[in-house]
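Known limitations

Files may contain more than one protein. Parsers should not assume a single record per file. Below, a two-record file is shown to illustrate correct handling: read the sequence, read the token line, then continue until end of file.
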Amino acid sequence: MNIVKKLIGQADYPIFKVRVLILIYSLLCVLTVLFSRNFFTEILDHGEVPDRLNLVVFFTIPAVLMVVLGISFFYLLVDFISNRPGSKFNARLLGYFTVIVVFSVTPILLMTTTALNEIIRFWQSIDAPRVTRSANSFIAENYSMHLERFENILRQNDFTNAASGERLPQDIAAVQVFKAAESGISSDGWEDVSFTGNERFRLFFPPAAESGFITRETPRDLETIRYVQRPQNDTIIVINYNLGGDFDPGRLALENQAQRFETLSELKDNMQPLLIYYYAVFFLPTLLMTAIITISFTRRITHPIVEITEAIQRVAEGNFSIQILTRRNDELGLLIRSFNSMVQDLEKSRAALVKNEKISIWQNMAQQLAHEIKNPLTPIKLSAERVLRRWRNNPENIGEIIEKSMLAIIQETESLSSLLNEFKTLSKPMEPSKTLTDLRESTEEIINTYSSSYPNVKFDISNVLTNIQLKIDKHRFSQIMTNIIVNAIDAIFFSGLIEIRTDLVKKREICYCRISVKDSGKGISAEERDLIFTPYYTTKITGTGLGLPIIERIVNDHDGSIWFDSAEGAGTTFYIDLPVA
């Protein structure tokens, strides 16, 4: 269960490309045709189950596909257990495909099994050995008949002068006469002196030196029976009887078929394991590949829907800058483009609403500013009246109160001046800076300033990108980062961890650098979250409540965006998106 929990966080595993799977499926079909031909040829030629090496080769493909399918099912199960968006829809589609495949394959399996059983039953009903014995008996009787006829011809005819040009008896194909050569009488000391008949039966030397029938040898004696006469010591006559053109081919065909019948009879006992091998090696891989392609198709179908679902959740959370990239030209692509257009319209409506809200805020700010200005004016007036009254009534003792009154007037005047300067910064038009700022260098300078002043605060900037130029003035960037870092230091009570990291993101074809500043403080309560960027709202005793509204103004004027995530007891993370050069 712990392994599953670890894998739940790794749900974004690669999806098998459908095109690659189809290519593999096509190669599998080609290999199946080639191997199946060799598979059945070996079986029918030898009548045996393939040896162990061939079985290892045959079962390699289904074994690999089983592993791939097992991995795919495992990740689907992880998605289902983790309740990942789209997992239930994925499982439902996979179930539909499985039912369709089962319904499609079952009739084929039944028909194939029935046909094979009927073929085997018909095959077993053939009495091949009896047919072979009868055919061999017929050939033997036919040969005996020819041999008897040849003997009659030999008794009735004198072939001593048959090679001199006389007409040969019927069924006698050729007569050839050999004379002893001068070198002596031997198997190779004979010369051909005369030949009558079909040239196909001519010999280069006598097949035997003694009278009698010659044992038939192939291919020398095809279609003939030879008989040797030796009327004289130096003369050999070879007489050829024509068996006909069908005798030897028929005999050879019968011998071949007899061997095939023996092979088939041996296959009867191995038929069941052969069928198992056939289904496991050639039919099972097709089903496994179909299942793998089905899983990839379901992920391909549900992936855009999951993207839209997650994007809708982001929009519901207030992120109106999200856009889904797609190259699809089908209905799902049209849906995604319609969603992007809708989000852009919502962003425009939200901008208009924010503008109206800001007008209302400015009105409230004017009232608040008037109130804030009125507060320091009261002690200034009272101090001045006190000095004037002492001057009129007791000028000798005016020194007792003049220093205290003047210090009070100076303090309240400085507070009023600071308030007016911040208000001026917030309210005056701001032109976006056209200069560039090195992200890493500026961040290090700001951190070095505060790390020496707050030794108990640990700053982690190891994940800040290098060689990134931002489209913002260095002073403005420093103003943004300083304000957020000071707030983070206050949130962790001057002791803890502040982590700064950056990432590159793309929105509406524009590249942004996303800067995140995370503290380990107590977090922001739910009641305070909607008021964070409201002018004059502050939770600090000495704060004016204009710091965050000012940096929000700076970020927005540079076509960026700022927001935050916070959880009570877990800290706060501020996110800033600024355009990259």
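...continuing to the second record:
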Amino acid sequence: MRQTIGYIIILLCFPLIWLLYSYIHSETQTASEFKEDLKVAIPLNTPIITSPIVLLDKDNEIFSEDYVEWRDPLPLESIPLFVQEVLIQSEDVEFYNHIGFNFSAIFRAVFANAAANASDQGASTITQQLVRLRYLSTEKTYERKVTELVYAYEMEKHSNKEQILENYLNEIYFSNQVYGIGAAATYYFGKPLGELTEAQQVFISAIPNNPSVYNPLKNFEATKNRQELLIDILVKNDKISTEHGNGLKNEPIVLQTKTKTQLYPVYSTYVLDELKSLISTSEGFQEKIESASNEQQAQFFKNELQTRVNEVISQGLIVHTALDPHKQKEDVAYIDSLLHQTKDLQAASVVINNETREIVSMYGGKDYKKFDFNRANQAVRQPGSALKPLLVYGPVFETTSLTPNNEVSGGKLCIGDYCPQNYGGAVYGNVTLKQAFRFSHNTPAVRLLQTVGIEDAFAKLEQFQFDHLIEEDHTYPAALGGLTNGVTVLEMADAYTGFINGMYKPAHAIRKVTNKSGDILYEWKEEKIEVWSPKTVNIMRDLLADVVVNGTGKGLSMTAPYVGAKTGTTNDFYDYWVAGLSDTHTSAVWIGYDMPQNMKPIESKKIHHKIFNQIMN
């Protein structure tokens, strides 16, 4: 009787077997048609995966992290064997024996799905899961499943088991935009994988089976229950003892979830801008852009640069910077509080270390949020008289025999249709160059530019990093800071470093860029060059110091042995500037409105002086 029932069951299974054969035969034919084109259509190589970019301050402490997906890939030898065993036992116990797929598991799944009239049973090996992660969708259809088998078979031919397992462990999804077992350890427990207890390792290993259901931040108990199920599997398969398993189950699990570090947004925003410039300079893009024959070609090179930048960043970088976090925090808090007293007033500042020529702090605008418009390096404004030391007086002492005690007329002046006036329309007789500089007289500055010659004066200015100067700026109004476009706060602070000792090197925030292993990928290569002779430097430092004591810089008070500065005010009081240096730092400060308006009513508050005092002290 039992034998008869067996024959009947076998006969009843024939239609199902025939249906299965038809399905497999059809899909195998379809798969074979594109098998030859497989490598061309979708190469079985490692895809580009976006890894975090980490920014470190001067003390090598993390102050900013940028990532959409949190990843921390590890070589297989750094992944504990216990974790490897947990995932193999739970996901693919025959991993080291199959050719990419497991026929017996597939047949079990097909029969189960057929009986349930569904396609829920997966029977996917680790290789198949990796294939699906990289190349295929997650839809549950037999068509996709057959394609997955072909891909898995190809992957097994081109990679060994260790490579497949390493990639799988680094790419599987652990919920909350976390990918890879190493990243899961640092994200959920705040420690490297190797420092987790075995109970913690099994806990995070429970997540990938269904990241939505086993998201420990939302469904902790479900994750804990699956952890215990995995422990039972290890016990059942004689990988650990029952006592060991009970100990793992009883160990308390306390999450210490990682939060993205996002401190000092204006500085980190600038660093990412500078990173693009560093890559452009290091890999020859900047030279291509500057030598482009037309705008269309220049745009092509710019697009190439952006593609390259995205590629580099996606690999994961550690950017070492010169940020002084204590100073940055204090400067931003002070300036924010000061600006909140005047509606819509904005400001920008940059502070550079004299010895290293590195940017140690930056202010980009009131209540700045990451990737906002950065007024320190993006706002191009007229510099007013703050440009005179660079375009007029420095070149005068560098190229002529004039001294601060020589005289120049402060009277009325017209050069063609251009008739500049002194502040308030005042007319002076002969004044010394020192007096003209101290009180920022305008007509003497224009006369001195005539003496030097416009082209010779601009040749001195072009030693620095003024990116917005154009040929049309080569006119006499430039002596008073009248430019077509203008300058940025960073450009002004950078240029004033030439008065430290006559030697100049562009100021940067980035010290070096490394990969996770510490290999240096990029660093600035500029060498210092002499931009002012010792004679010119000594004279200019004396004149800048005199401004602070006796001239337009009164109110600038610091405890440093040396302080020198120059102020600037533009037409209609649209912009107020202070640029200068002490023994240790050089800086520039700008205040104004984004939509320019007259600031005469707040001139007496000397807000730009107060900011300069704060950031230079």
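Parsers that stop after the first record will miss the second one. For reference, the second record is described as follows. DSSP finds 23 helices and 16 strands in the chain.
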